Amino acid sequence: MNLKSMNFDLIKRPVTLITVGSVVVLALLWWVVWMSPQGSKLSTVNSQISTLTLQYNTLEATLTTDKQQSAKVNLYAGYLKMFSIAVPEVPDAGGLTTALATLADSISPALHITSITDDTTVVGTPLGMVPLSLELTGPRQDCFAFLNDLYNPLKMSRLITVASFEPQPASSSTPEDILKTSSQMYTVALVGTAYFDAAIDPGLPGTVPTTTLAPA
Questions:
Q1: Across residues 5-20, what is the average pLDDT?
Q2: Most exposed of 74, 160, 167, 208 (fewest Cβ within 10 Å)?
């Protein structure tokens, strides 16, 4: 097309120029008044979304960790409760004597604790100790059942370790096979240790009284 032959008169008309100018001005106003602020708002919103997403991920990770720790706390709480009973804050010789007598009664009415010494203490770290010495009389199988139940937390809640367990027939009859069940009467000398929290000062006297329990 020959530019010389083009008619520019139409373009040069005022109405056309005003119209074109108005369109340009409106486009600039649209950009300045609407598009640019909205673009800035969109950038701000995107930034906020990124921040909130990061916070959400952090909180979700924290929640997962808290759930895991809560499960461990519940598990350990059971252990701590059992330990607080097995190893009390005080020697509690009276409670220990009662627990041992109750254990013997639960095994057999024919089993008796005839003497017990458990009123002295030895403060140590981390646990204090209560030296224990007792004498049992009763059928042989019941004496061995008593030893077994001392280590059963469902039967004996207090923590006790046994250093020696010496059964002797109550009569001078022919010795029996100790692996066989028998109702022959035995006398047992048991030496062991109960425990308490060493952080507590027991304040007990140094003498060691011996308690003799009459057969039921």
A1: 56
A2: 74
pLDDT, one tens digit per residue, over 37-75 is 666 666 777 778 888 888 888 888 888 877 777 776 666
Cα separations (Å) of 186 from 30, 102, 161? Answer: 108, 19, 21
Say which residue the tokens 């950038």 belong to: 43
Flag whether the pTM goes above 0.90: no
At which residue do the structure tokens 């530019």 appear? 3
Q: Are 159 and 194 in contact (CB under 8 A)?
A: yes
In the structure encoding, which two tokens stand for residue 118, read together? 């458990």
In sequence order, what are the beta bridge partners of 117? 133
CA distance 149 to 98: 15
Q: What is the CATH number of the domain that holds 137?
A: 3.30.70.60
- Residue environment code for 23-61, b if the CB has 16+ CB neighbours within 10 A, otherwise e: eeeeeeeeeeeeeeeeeeeeeeeeeeeeeeeeeeeeeee
